[in-house]
Amino acid sequence: MTMTMTNGSVDANGGASKPFKIFVGYDPREDLAYEVCRHSILKRSSIPVEIHPIVQSELRNKGLYWRERGKLESTEFSFSRFLTPHLANFEGWAMFVDCDFLYLADIKELRDLIDDKYAIMCVQHDYTPKETTKMDGAVQTVYPRKNWSSMVLYNCGHPKNKVLTPEVVNKETGAFLHRFQWLADEEIGSIPFVWNFLEGHNKVVEGDSTTFPKAVHYTRGGPWFDAWKNCEFADLWLKEMEEYENKAKKVAEN
Ligand SMILES: [Mn+2]
């Protein structure tokens, strides 16, 4: 696993600017996904970025994370992701993203969408099923704001986000955190869905380039798992993986 990495470029206005902080959820079972996600961001970024993995064992060692793992937590960063504003010293804007993303566009385009009037910004997927009961009559489980927390731009200096102390992140419920219950609805800005394009759910509309993913989210599992080797956009991820591995090999040889 590679730690913090900064690419030292210069902003479009010609002046050196503070790097954009990106925190990527890290899970030891998905190390390769993390590396490929990171590579895909760095390769396309025209602005300085700083990529930090959110590693649960490190947070435990630092005394920032102590909650017991619940049975419903599918990754090691299910809750630790909400430490993003704290990890950014409650200053400026920072992004959190799951490791199962593949970036296909310049992160500057996403950063340019930032609007200081919001406390956070994210893709506001609408998962509400049309039927309230399934075909067999069982009640359909509705998860409000499902997947919203998988990629979030945090206005870390916003007063409302001061709530997200380690104490709160370690004790609050999944519903409180994942549904952003510390915020009012109008404090949550909206980002086009192509920045959190859910593989298997969102679709590209033929002939409409605005529907092509800028970031694919392999939310069901990606090609780094055998079962998902043939999922949609698997070819793009595998190509990126090869590039990352060739680059890593060269670094090791030098
Ligand atoms: Mn995910």
Summarize the structure.
By secondary structure, the chain is an alpha/beta fold.
According to CATH, the homologous superfamily is Spore Coat Polysaccharide Biosynthesis Protein SpsA, Chain A
Overall mean pLDDT: 91
Care to count the β-strands?
10
Lateral strand order in the biggest sheet:
1-3-2-4-7-6-8
> How can the largest sheet be summarized?
7 strands, mixed
**Top CATH class:** Alpha Beta
CATH topology: Spore Coat Polysaccharide Biosynthesis Protein SpsA, Chain A
Kindly provide the radius of gyration, computed on alpha-carbon positions and rounded to a whole number of angstroms: 18 Å
Q: Can you give the helix content as a percent range?
A: 10-25%
Proportion of β residues?
5-15%
Structural class: alpha/beta
- Termini, distance in Å? 18 Å
The CATH architecture assignment turns out to be Alpha-Beta Complex
Catalogue the ligands. Answer: manganese (II) ion
* Uncertain spans: 8-15
The figure for the number of domains is: 1
Series of H and E elements = EEHEHHEEHEEHHEEEH
Q: Identify the overall geometry.
A: globular
Structure write-up:
The protein is α/β, with parallel strands linked by helices. It has a seven-stranded mixed sheet. Strands 5-10-9 form a three-stranded mixed sheet. The protein is globular, with a radius of gyration of 18 Å. Helix 1 packs across helix 7. The chain has one domain: Spore Coat Polysaccharide Biosynthesis Protein SpsA, Chain A. The chain contains seven helices and ten strands. The longest helix has 20 residues. The site of manganese (II) ion (MN) has 5 residues, from loops. InterPro entries: Nucleotide-diphossugar_trans (IPR029044).
